[in-house]
Amino acid sequence: SYTREGNSGIEIYGLDARLGKLMPDYSLSSPNASFLTASKDRKFLYSVREEGGTSSSVVVFKAGFDGKFNVLNSVPNPGNGPCHIVYREETKTVYTANYGSGSLCVYKTENGKLLPVVQHIVYKGSSVNKSRQQASHAHQVTVSPDGKYLYVTDLGADKIHQHKINEDGTVNENYTSISVKPGNG
Questions:
Q1: Residues 6 or more apart in contact with residue 29 via CB below 8 angstroms
Q2: Is 53 left (phi over 0), alpha (psi -120 to 50) or beta?
Q3: What is the C-alpha separation between 115 and 180, in angstroms, rounded?
Q4: Beta strand pairing status for 36-38 and 44-49?
Q5: Residue 160 and residue 176: Cα distance in Å, rounded?
Q6: What number of other Cβ atoms are within 10 A of residue 40's Cβ?
Q7: C-alpha pair distances (Å), 55 with each of 24, 63, 101, 105
Q8: What confidence score (pLDDT) does residue 6 get?
Q9: Other beta carbons less than 10 A from residue 63's beta carbon
């Protein structure tokens, strides 16, 4: 969550199935950790740090022998305001949608560890609601069910950008865009 309220950023809870209640377990310090994604085996937890300007980053936590996550590493995110993240298991690739800069970042990983950004694609566009749509605002990134495409929703341009995913996990920079009703973001 956002850390302006004095919380740590990521809070881990356990579930008491017998009582049907969540119970706080521990927390991880991660400024403005607005979205998370995990590897299929749950050994790695990736998070955006949704901060502005040059402070934005992506961090990965690794599960220890005790099952608790510890920071493995973090890398700078050249996009402003990363707000969504997804992990693609087949290529061990991480993708972020960056709201402030209206862009997509692509990261490769090695043994879970994040490597420096390999692609930064900036979208251009605007739409009818000038108070929210004066520029592109990428706000979600997702992999298609068949794993062949990456979709980036762009609130600012009223578009969904479709990238073909290359064999190595990078994306084709010649993408197609699907328009939605103006103002729907």
A1: 8, 9
A2: left
A3: 34
A4: antiparallel
A5: 8
A6: 8
A7: 29, 25, 13, 15
A8: 74
A9: 18
Residue 178 has φ and ψ, to the nearest 5°, of -105, 125
* pLDDT tens by residue, 72-104: 999 999 988 899 999 999 999 999 999 999 999
Model pTM greater than 0.90? yes
Structure tokens at 100: 């402030």
Position of tokens 């400024």? 31
For strands 138-143 and 21-29, give the pairing: unpaired
Reported as a single tens digit per residue, the pLDDT across 14-50 is 999 999 999 999 999 888 888 999 999 999 999 998 8
Least Cα distance to 137 among 149, 123, 117, 150 occurs for 123
Q: Provide mean pLDDT across the span 102-120.
A: 97
Q: What is the DSSP annotation of 76-134?
A: E-SSSSEEEEEEETTTTEEEEEETTTTEEEEEEEETTEEEEEEEEEE-----S-TTT-S
